[in-house]
Design a protein that fits this description.
By secondary structure, the chain is mainly α. 0% of the residues are buried.
C-alpha cells in the first residue's frame, strides 16, 4: 500500500514539474512572438525605406542621363 502512495506522489510530482515547465515555456513563447512581431514591423519599415531609396536612385539616374545628353548636345554645337 505504501508503494502505491509513493507511485502516486511520484506521478503528482512529475505532473507538477511538467506544468511548471509548460508555464515557463508558454511565457517564453509569448516573449518570442512579441519579438517576432517587432522584427516583422522593422522588416516592413526597412522594405518601404528600400523601395523609397530605389525610387530616388532611379530618378537621380534619369537626371544624370538627361544632363549627360544635354552636355553632349552642347559639346556638339
Amino acid at each position: 500500500m505504501l508503494e502505491g502512495h509513493g507511485v502516486v506522489r511520484g506521478l503528482c510530482l512529475v505532473g507538477i514539474v511538467g506544468v511548471l515547465i509548460a508555464g515557463a515555456g508558454c511565457g517564453q513563447m509569448k516573449k518570442l512572438r512579441q519579438e517576432n512581431q517587432q522584427l516583422n514591423e522593422t522588416i516592413s519599415g526597412l522594405q518601404q525605406e528600400n523601395a523609397d531609396l530605389s525610387s530616388k536612385a532611379s530618378r537621380y539616374e534619369s537626371e544624370v542621363n538627361r544632363l549627360e545628353n544635354t552636355r553632349r548636345d552642347l559639346e556638339a554645337k
